[in-house]
Write a structure and sequence with these properties.
The protein is an all-alpha fold and 149 residues long. The chain contains 8 helices and no strands.
């Protein structure tokens, strides 16, 4: 799986092979890590929240979610830029799933109940590059805020 993501990130012309669920989750996890690191503070609370998001989305146990997050940290560190990363995801997943990616990003960004400008900027960039329109991105944020209470 890690080899797949490395090739996905390095290939400027992504192939149109279907993305497996595991590959998609690793790609999403790496994007969540990039978001959490965007404000130059990547603490235990953010790592734990990423694991919770991943566990909820995929029905993973604690150990599995931790392992996925750790693989995602390594993948994110190798990713040349967010642009290529999100474009590759756009080619591989359906629009509804891309909205789910935006929801997951907002879930991690709002975990500390603060909206850092760096996180907002990365989510706007990711939504744009994933082809998620402003309305759907805003609705995704609203759903996450409502779910948080």
């Amino acid at each position: 799986m890690f080899k797949f993501l490395s090739s996905l990130l390095a290939d400027p012309q992504p192939h149109h092979d279907p993305l497996t669920a595991e590959d998609a989750e690793l790609a999403l996890a790496a994007l969540l890590v990039r978001l959490a690191r965007s404000d130059n503070h990547y603490g235990a609370d953010e790592r734990q929240h990423i694991e919770q998001v991943l566990a909820t989305r995929r029905g993973l146990g604690h150990g599995e979610a931790t392992a996925l997050r750790e693989r995602a940290e390594a993948a994110e560190a190798e990713a040349p830029d967010t642009v290529r990363f999100t474009r590759a995801l756009k080619e591989k997943i359906a629009y509804e799933d891309r909205i789910g990616v935006i929801e997951a990003l907002w879930d991690v960004a709002l975990a500390d109940n603060e909206r850092a400008p760096e996180e907002d900027a990365l989510i706007r960039l990711a939504a744009n590059l994933l082809g998620v329109n402003d309305r759907d991105s805003g609705l995704a944020r609203q759903r996450v805020v409502a779910a948080r209470g």
